[in-house]
User: Which sequence fits this backbone?
């Protein structure tokens, strides 16, 4: 998990520097290729989902569902479906790739003009978001392709053995 | 006297201050009325809550149960803002005042001259405040007193404006939005004091209520919901709770370590006041975080009804409704002061419809608990409130473990809890009619699954720690507008609504109750029978509170529409039922199929002059 976080930070730095160039790349093929610590990645190394025939979702997608609801839901609505306050994310995730996703989450987005005042804060320092950014991306990626429906995934793969300890360490809390 | 046409010098809309060189015509030769004088006339709506008792009962009768079906739209006004419009306008003499959601523009409209804009004021606020407002950038109204309009801005600045010109009289800041502390509630003016609080329960903001001097804005007292006795302004021996002194350190000893510093208990609801007892009443909100396993203890005094001496701020009594909250059932809803008859004896009562689904009747003089009933039969997280005075559990809810997200630790999905976190009723105020002796209550009929997990705290960042999945309550609908007797617990009548009823109620001596629906309907209902007399679809969903006033011999009814708030966030895309099995997803209607954003005031009257 630690190594992956380092990659995330590198991608973040790169993506932030290339805000405009990286735009509209699209997420590419979501086919899962590799797995580390409950998280699947695609051929480009971006986090992705793996959903079995019987609907069982991988652990990362399930955690993404939970942590999306922690921080993102109160603006973007249940299941990434949008609200009266902020846009739906399922269409957005079809348009941007993982590095752009991280850049937007970390740096925030502002659309403030006479017609609207939409402000997404910078979550780059928010551990509740950044410790689970791959998982949140994976969940929304699955929602954006309709691989995952609305609501709580009914079945999910078991937690990796060290997941709780690693999460708490990243969050900096003791349970 | 007419002053139309003199309005030069207003450079541009959206300017910092757009003050026309005219004042309200009727005040031109006299001083603005005192709040006491303005509130004494039924023609006015001089306080956000109409009166200190928060009854929202008007003695006007021109519109009544016989003629309400003939109501028509008299005039409308666009606020120019798209976000959720909670709250209500004020009417004082020939001027109406209203405030928009962020950027919190205040308008003064001349009712004598085609609702011309006398002045408007838009504060300068950093847009960074927008995302730290949990659940939309709402504002629940401005207050009036001492010839000033008092605005509690989103960024927590309090500003007093000259009611005649819109010019700033003073400014005060009570907390920083950089820590997640924001302003959403309507202040209350009592004598020389402005009473107000703070929002930020999802950011761990230590809640407080403050009294400011209306002359210059200086802080007279500030009382926190949680913390050491000298911060929460209690007297360990004299401040009572359920008939007993609270004792020393009543708050801090119910928290782990110094968690009370980030413990929430915010005060974003309504305030009421009893002039005879000189007591201020309000409720405190949820303890932070939403993960109860992370903050053991009763978490006092979150979720508490406070009665404070308005001159000193010291609490006379407190009552914690939901100790160790595990559901986000904020206790901030309005405290309605009503003189009721209980078992044949008159009681100076405080009546409160809590988010937790129980209605409470207390003696407002001493805090004695008189009655507690479920006002929605779906409520299941507790079987009742322990009313046995000799019980160790007296006054506490009888919690059902399987519906308590702290009972089996984190990473467990607690399912089928009713009500959902937004409560059986949220901030949308109820009304009390002294004629029918009934309370008219807009309610939510929504249930949830609740899955808590650990979260980290950082100032100014969301501090939530739970995943909530909401779904319609039994019957498949989400709102009930009820006429309710909190002494007996009996529902006289109810109207089911597809979506939550999130607009505040008004009741009148004309025997008509008014409220707005999330689909956008302004509805007039017979107070005795619940029969719908009039139903008109305004341009956007209603989460504002209906008011009435008299101008030029004519009674008007007014409401802000503009969908948003928690209701807009939760219901925009429609709810799903996690327990209906595969294939049922999307089975419930989406609010966005019925209404869209847009702030507008719609004013109704009977036809003819």
Assistant:
């Amino acid at each position: 998990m630690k190594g992956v976080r380092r990659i995330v930070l590198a991608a973040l730095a790169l993506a932030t520097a290339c805000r405009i160039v990286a735009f509209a790349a699209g997420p590419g093929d979501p086919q899962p290729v590799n797995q580390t610590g409950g998280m699947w990645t695609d051929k480009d190394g971006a986090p992705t989902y793996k959903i079995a025939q019987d609907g069982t979702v991988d652990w990362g997608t399930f955690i993404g569902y939970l942590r999306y609801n922690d921080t993102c839901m109160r603006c973007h609505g249940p299941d990434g479906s949008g609200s009266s306050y902020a846009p739906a994310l399922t269409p957005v995730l079809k348009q941007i790739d993982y590095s752009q996703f991280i850049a937007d989450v970390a740096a925030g987005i502002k659309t403030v003009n006479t017609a609207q005042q939409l402000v997404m804060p910078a979550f780059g320092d928010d551990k509740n978001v950044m410790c689970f950014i791959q998982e949140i991306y994976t969940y929304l990626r699955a929602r954006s392709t309709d691989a995952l429906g609305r609501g709580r995934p009914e079945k999910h793969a078991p937690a990796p053995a060290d997941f709780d300890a690693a999460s708490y360490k990243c969050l900096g809390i003791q349970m | 006297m007419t002053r139309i046409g003199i309005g030069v010098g207003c450079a541009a809309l959206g300017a910092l201050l757009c003050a026309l060189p005219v004042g309200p015509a009727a005040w031109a030769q006299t001083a603005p009325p005192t709040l006491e004088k303005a509130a004494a006339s039924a023609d006015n709506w001089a306080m956000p809550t109409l009166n200190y008792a928060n009854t929202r009962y008007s003695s006007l009768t021109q519109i009544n149960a016989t003629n309400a079906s003939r109501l028509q739209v008299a005039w409308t006004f666009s606020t120019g803002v798209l976000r959720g419009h909670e709250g209500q306008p004020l009417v004082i003499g020939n001027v109406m005042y209203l405030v928009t959601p962020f950027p919190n523009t205040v308008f003064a409209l001349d009712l004598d001259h085609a609702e011309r804009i006398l002045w408007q004021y838009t504060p300068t606020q950093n847009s960074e405040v927008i995302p730290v407002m949990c659940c939309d950038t709402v504002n629940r109204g401005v207050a009036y007193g001492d010839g000033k309009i008092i605005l509690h801005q989103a960024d927590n600045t309090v500003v007093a404006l000259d009611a005649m010109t819109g010019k700033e009289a003073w400014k005060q800041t009570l907390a920083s939005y950089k820590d997640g502390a924001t302003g959403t509630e309507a202040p209350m003016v009592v004598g020389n004091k402005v009473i107000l609080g703070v929002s930020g329960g999802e950011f761990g903001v230590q809640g407080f209520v403050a009294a400011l001097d209306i002359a210059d804005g200086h802080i007279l007292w500030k009382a926190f919901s949680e913390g050491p006795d000298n911060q929460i302004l209690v007297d360990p021996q004299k401040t009572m709770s359920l008939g007993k002194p609270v004792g020393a350190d009543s708050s801090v000893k119910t928290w782990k370590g110094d968690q009370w510093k980030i413990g929430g208990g915010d005060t974003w609801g309504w305030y009421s006041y009893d002039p005879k007892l000189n007591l201020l009443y309000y409720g405190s909100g949820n303890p932070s975080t939403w993960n109860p396993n992370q903050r053991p203890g009763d978490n006092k005094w979150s979720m508490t009804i406070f009665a404070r001496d308005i001159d000193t701020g010291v609490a006379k009594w407190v009552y914690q409704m939901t100790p160790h909250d595990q559901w986000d059932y904020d206790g901030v809803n309005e405290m309605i002061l009503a003189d009721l008859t209980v078992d044949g004896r008159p009681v100076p009562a405080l009546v409160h419809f809590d988010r937790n689904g129980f209605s409470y009747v207390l003696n407002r003089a001493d805090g004695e608990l008189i009655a507690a009933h479920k006002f929605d039969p779906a409520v299941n997280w507790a079987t009742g409130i322990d009313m046995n005075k000799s019980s160790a559990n007296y006054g506490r809810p009888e919690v059902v473990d399987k519906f308590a997200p702290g009972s089996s630790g984190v990473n467990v999905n607690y399912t089928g809890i009713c009500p959902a976190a937004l409560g059986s009723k949220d901030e949308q105020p109820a009304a009390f009619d002294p004629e029918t002796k009934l309370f008219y209550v807009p309610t939510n009929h929504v249930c949830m699954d609740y899955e808590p997990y650990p979260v980290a705290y950082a100032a100014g960042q969301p501090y939530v720690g739970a995943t909530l999945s909401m779904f319609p309550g039994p019957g498949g609908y989400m709102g009930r507008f009820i006429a309710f007797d909190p002494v007996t617990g009996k529902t006289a009548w109810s109207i089911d609504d597809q979506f939550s009823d999130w607009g505040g109620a008004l009741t009148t001596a004309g025997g008509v109750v008014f409220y707005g629906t999330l689909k956008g309907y302004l509805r007039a209902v017979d107070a005795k029978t619940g029969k719908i007399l009039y139903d008109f679809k305004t341009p956007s969903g209603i989460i504002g509170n209906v008011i009435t006033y008299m101008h030029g011999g004519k009674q008007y009814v007014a409401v802000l529409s503009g969908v948003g708030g928690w209701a807009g966030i939760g219901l925009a895309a429609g709810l799903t039922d996690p327990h209906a099995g595969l294939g049922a997803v999307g089975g419930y209607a989406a609010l966005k199929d019925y209404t869209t954003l847009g702030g507008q005031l719609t004013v109704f009257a009977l036809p003819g002059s």
Summary: Chain B is about 5% helix and 35% strand. Confidence is low (pLDDT under 50) at residues 1-23, 581-587 of chain B. Residues 565-571 of chain B form the longest helix (7 residues).
